[in-house]
Design a protein that fits this description.
Elements lengths: L3 H8 L2 H10 L4 E2 H8 L3 H13 L3 E6 L2 E6 L1 H12 L28
Antiparallel strand pairs: 1-3, 2-3
Helix pairs in contact: 3-4
């Protein structure tokens, strides 16, 4: 992924976000991911192909099974890039208090 726009395009599909969330628990095979996100195995495979091409998912063969896992360094790089969109730290999970998350005077809640 080269740009923020590339990352956002990849994350624009809810199923891909659900796959990433499922893989946070650890490596999973396609059938387990399909059950977790509620879509077909072929749909999961297509989404995994894109996530793998983006470098955020890695593949490990365990005997006859193929397991997918998250590439933590790639996710950290995504967080860094996406954090440039907003200075209120909402992407890092530490949102400031205020009407919209900002505490400076420019964003005060109207009275």
């Amino acid at each position: 992924m080269d740009t923020i726009a590339d990352i956002l395009r990849l994350l624009a599909v809810d199923t891909r976000i659900e796959i990433i969330e499922s893989l946070k628990a650890g490596p999973m095979c396609v059938c387990a991911i399909a059950r977790a996100v509620g879509v077909s195995q072929s749909a999961v495979s297509q989404h995994l192909r894109l996530l793998k091409a983006a470098g955020v998912v890695t593949v490990h063969r365990r005997g006859q099974w193929i397991h997918y896992s998250l590439e933590e360094k790639a996710l950290a790089a995504w967080r860094t890039r996406l954090s440039r969109l907003c200075d209120c730290n909402c992407i890092r999970g530490r949102r400031r208090k205020g009407c919209c998350g900002h505490t400076d005077n420019k964003h005060e809640k109207p009275r």
